[in-house]
Amino acid sequence: MAPQLRKQLVVVGHGMVGHRFVESAISRGLTEAYDITVLGAEPRPAYDRVALTSFFEVGAEALSLLPSGTYDDPRVRLRTHAEVVAVSPRQRIVTLASGEDLHYDELVLATGAAPFVPPVPGADLANVFGYRTIEDLEAIRSASKGGRRKVGAVIGGGLLGLEAANALHQLGVETHVVELAPRLMAVQIDDLGGRTLNQHIGKLGLTVHTGAMTEAILGDRRNRVERLALKDRNPLDVDLVVFSAGIRPRDALARAAGLDVADRGGVLVDGSLRTSDEHIWAIGECAAVQGVMYGLVAPGYDMAEIVVDRLLGGAGEFTGADMSTKLKLLGVDVASFGDAHGTTKGALELTYADALSGVYKKLVISEDGKRLLGGVLVGDAAAYGVLRPMVASGMELPENPEELILPASRGGANLELPDDAQVCSCNDVTKAEITAAAADGTITRAGATCGSCKTLVKKIVEDYFAATGKEIDRSLCEHFRMTRQELFDVVAVHGYTRFDDIVEGHGTGRGCDICKPAVASILASLLNQHVLAPGNRQLQDTNDAYLGNLQKNGTYSVVPRVPGGEITPDKLIVIGQVAKDFGLYTKITGGQRIDLFGARMEDLPAIWKRLVEAGMESGHAYGKSLRTVKSCVGSTWCRYGVQDSVGLAIELELRYRGLRSPHKLKGGVSGCARECAEARSKDFGIIATEKGWNLYVCGNGGAMPAHAQLLAGDLSKEELVRYLDRFLMYYIRTADRLQRTSSWMDAVDGGLDRIREVVVDDVLGLGDQLEAAMARHVDSYFDEWKATIEDPEKLARFVSFVNAPGTPDPNITFREERGQVQAATTDGPVSLGTTIPVGAP
Amino acid sequence: MTAAVREAVCRLDQIEREGGVTALVAGEAVAIIRTHEDHVYALSNYDPFSKASVLARGIVGTRSVDGEDVPFVASPMFKQAFDLRTGECLDDRAVAVATYDVRVVDGVVEVATRTP
Ligand code: SRM
Ligand SMILES: Cc1cc2nc3c(=O)[nH]c(=O)nc-3n(C[C@H](O)[C@H](O)[C@H](O)COP(=O)(O)OP(=O)(O)OC[C@H]3O[C@@H](n4cnc5c(N)ncnc54)[C@H](O)[C@@H]3O)c2cc1C
Ligand code: SF4
Ligand code: FES
């Protein structure tokens, strides 16, 4: 080994925690002192293991935590396919499987954990899998394919086991869950809770075997799984087996190197995450902090931060973690928090069970009946948000604690949390911090991570305003004391077609720049009249009023529609020629089309006419309406494309063009999972799969970027269009003014799941109505530019001066830059020259 | 009071209710705005906030100030509201635009080139 000038830090394992360690080391400046080498055994950089199951939907690339494969710091080197086989603490050397030795000054072990495989005969047969890596999932998927319907068994009915069972079920495999304990999720929930869960899962068509011990896995002649032998039970005929019976820390390297390990496994570390060797640290699932191993990612991240801190000379200390969990498994809410099993001395239990609706709730209460210690919720976990912080804050219980778990219809009560109760555990935000923020109109990070605290945060804010006597004003503006959604319903129910009737019947005054465009948008969604029709025109913001975007010097921009970004050379030539003839600045937009800037208002009709004659139309760049549906080249040219993304993008853009909505709408279609169209940053994004299309909704770029979420997968085009029609109309009907789809989703009670219920499962029975509304829109579409140039009455407004139509406004000025015009402004009104003085007194 | 010099700029029916037109009055751009009640007002078209000649293209409405409905036009650029009667900005009282005397005679709008 060549002598090293700078100090060397080696990280073994590039999983979630190893990756976080490196990120933090870079951002906190540890790379000033150390060169970092990360050695990962897997064939790819770290990926989001927590979201592993979504691999089937989104593919490996989407899960990657480091898609580029390199860190943005030349002092960090990542090597994949690099398994460490030995550590020599005395020489400070690690040895790779290839035989190569690497020197280190500090060593961080982040080797994670491996599925626990109980010592049953046959565990080494083909078609027996773990559930931990992308390779595991790829293997499971290929084993589930082909021939008749496959049967699979998941061994282990814990959190992970149920997740694996869910995945098998979704792959179309007939699924058995085999659990040794007498109930499911034995670690998190109790007997009755487990039984309630059983009931839900049984309804979905999975078979649960609790108290069942696997004796052997029997194979056929080709060494493939054939049968599962269970103790005292009938054997199960199965084609594949997934082990998910817990995890074991990967501590073999440490053991062999002579480091201390915990009794129950895991590299033993102290509160500073240092092992028994002063230059070796262990973090994440391979570590046992003071003997305790943590099988969740958040504590691992804390550990990573602490080691970075220590190496920088700090004194960070790991003080334990909240192991409360709330999740939705196979559509069932399950939560467990605090001392869920009532192991505290003298603990009392209070339960509520409703076998009919499959709801089970348990509270664990201290001996004196004063404090909440923990609990379990199955079937309805809405109270989790309030109960978990109660445990953490140790607040005194109300007199009738049973009210905390009774349904509201039976006297369930609301409860006052103490100010110091931690409401958001992800971001450590207390109730006091939330009310303080509400008071001075700022926001906290509460709710921004896992989102499980959002309902509670909202309630605290609302309660705060109610208590201070301020009603939360959800009015549109001073003229309408109602929300946009309420106004929408009022307009629809009464069948109004004119602003005057609406403001006279339901508002005050003559309206303003807030309610008028909002009413215009509602009328447009319902009636699809021309935005410049008499009575409509004065309601529009200037962009809609002139069918272009107002620029800083008072001119407008012109953006013809280029559906899906596909354009012929002839149209490109026309656009270029028009720009030259009218002296316009041209730019390629971020929406895959061309913007012509600097058009004087009086020139707009002539510009549109030229474009319309060449077969183009308005691109609605000015409207709160569909903007573009971006596309990638897709299967027509791209060697990776699996579907015709351009064709679909064009079809969708033409279907939804002109659709007025609460905020602008954008779409994208990518031809494969590489996602070159950035579809997931759109209000609706579609990604091609081999079987069809995955539909993602509620994404956006802008100041608060949000990734679109999967609404439904592997859809045919007909299904896709049906769901999109419903989704868009549902949004248009229920969203607030200027609320984009992602914030609308956050505001919808039940969020994405609720939207899916309405759009895909049609639980409200609104499907037909929403589709019919969209069909009306599609049938009544017309090009606003064309309709304007054909109507002398509408054209009359497009003059610079009513009394001097041929005179350009002298206030509009330009300068030149890079060979084109740019907008300029003047420092006061410009006069065309006159001898009569004018102006204020 | 100085004798006003008036210029006929357009017919009243060329201005939509709660809409505006721009007129060239003594070489300058003037916004002529008609309210729902058919009152007609004239202001300088130049928006001092955005430094652009745009006020006639704004949304016209009312805002309740001390219990009174004040007619205003909101600049289409950054939405500041201007009192149609006085030219005063309702969002920033330090700012005002020039106003012009205006009247309607036999359906024709006349603007005084000098404020009275
Ligand atoms: C022209 C263009 C920039 C460019 O030169 O590329 C542009 C220009 C404007 N954008 Fe944009 N945006 C343009 C693409 C984008 C994109 C990229 C995209 O669509 O892929 C984004 C991020 C994606 C997104 O919207 O989620 C984007 C996010 C915004 C936002 C932030 C929206 C949000 O939800 O946070 C605004 C502000 C708003 O709408 O309230 C905005 C608003 C504007 C306005 C309308 C501001 C205004 O009121 O004057 C700009 C005027 C357009 C004009 O004069 O023609 N623009 N804007 C792009 C036109 C695309 C097109 O062909 O229609
Ligand atoms: C399906 C599933 C669902 C989960 N859901 C949740 C959840 O909802 N919430 C939650 O908090 N946690 C969840 N977890 C747990 C979470 O994924 C782990 O806590 C987290 O990944 C631990 O990170 P880590 O870096 O310690 O280990 P890992 O992510 O496992 O990374 C360890 C890496 O080290 C590598 N490695 C091991 N030995 C060597 C060696 N000798 N040389 C080189 N490289 C080596 C491994 O190949 C691996 O890539 C889930 C896990 C799974 C599998
Ligand atoms: S998303 Fe896929 S199909 Fe589309 S261009 Fe990229 S690689 Fe090709
Ligand atoms: S608890 Fe996860 S975001 Fe608040």
Automatic annotation (TrEMBL), chain A:
Its EC number is 1.8.7.1. Keywords: 2Fe-2S, 4Fe-4S, FAD, Flavoprotein, Heme, Iron, Iron-sulfur, Metal-binding, Nitrate assimilation, Oxidoreductase, Thioether bond. InterPro entries: BFD-like_2Fe2S-bd_dom_sf, FAD/NAD-bd_sf, FAD/NAD-binding_dom, FAD/NAD-linked_Rdtase_dimer_sf, NasD-like, NiRdtase/SiRdtase_haem-b_fer, Nit/Sulf_reduc_fer-like_dom_sf, Nitri_red_NirB. Siroheme binds at residue 676. Signal peptide: none annotated. Binds 1 siroheme per subunit. Binds 1 [4Fe-4S] cluster per subunit. Residues 324-384 form the NADH-rubredoxin oxidoreductase C-terminal domain. Pfam families: NIR_SIR, NIR_SIR_ferr, Pyr_redox_2, Rubredoxin_C. It comes from the Bacteria. It is an enzyme of class 1 (oxidoreductase). Pathway: Nitrogen metabolism; nitrate reduction (assimilation). PROSITE patterns: NIR_SIR. CDD domains: NirB_Fer2_BFD-like_2 (cd19944). It catalyses: hydrogen sulfide + 6 oxidized [2Fe-2S]-[ferredoxin] + 3 H2O = sulfite + 6 reduced [2Fe-2S]-[ferredoxin] + 7 H(+). Residues 623-759 form the Nitrite/sulphite reductase 4Fe-4S domain. Residues 551-613 form the Nitrite/Sulfite reductase ferredoxin-like domain. Gene3D superfamilies: 3.30.390.30, BFD-like [2Fe-2S]-binding domain, FAD/NAD(P)-binding domain, Sulfite Reductase Hemoprotein, domain 1. Residues 8-290 form the FAD/NAD(P)-binding domain. [4Fe-4S] cluster binds at residues 632, 638, 672, 676. Its cofactor is siroheme; [2Fe-2S] cluster; [4Fe-4S] cluster; FAD. PANTHER family: NITRITE REDUCTASE (NADH) LARGE SUBUNIT (PTHR43809). Catalyzes the reduction of sulfite to sulfide, a step in the biosynthesis of sulfur-containing amino acids and cofactors. NCBIfam families: nitri_red_nirB, PRK14989.1. This is assimilatory sulfite reductase (ferredoxin). It comes from Nocardioides silvaticus. The lineage of its organism: Bacteria, Bacillati, Actinomycetota, Actinomycetes, Propionibacteriales.
From TrEMBL, chain B:
One of its GO terms (biological process) is nitrate assimilation. Residues 7-111 form the Rieske domain. SUPFAM superfamilies: ISP domain. Coiled coil: none annotated. Pfam families: Rieske_2. Keywords: 2Fe-2S, Iron, Iron-sulfur, Metal-binding, Nitrate assimilation, Oxidoreductase. InterPro entries: NirD (IPR017881), Rieske-like_NirD (IPR012748), Rieske_2Fe-2S (IPR017941), Rieske_2Fe-2S_sf (IPR036922). One of its GO terms (molecular function) is monooxygenase activity. The keyword Metal-binding applies. The keyword Repeat does not apply. PANTHER family: NITRITE REDUCTASE (NADH) SMALL SUBUNIT, PTHR40562. NCBIfam families: nirD_assim_sml. This is Nitrite reductase (NAD(P)H) small subunit. It comes from Nocardioides silvaticus.
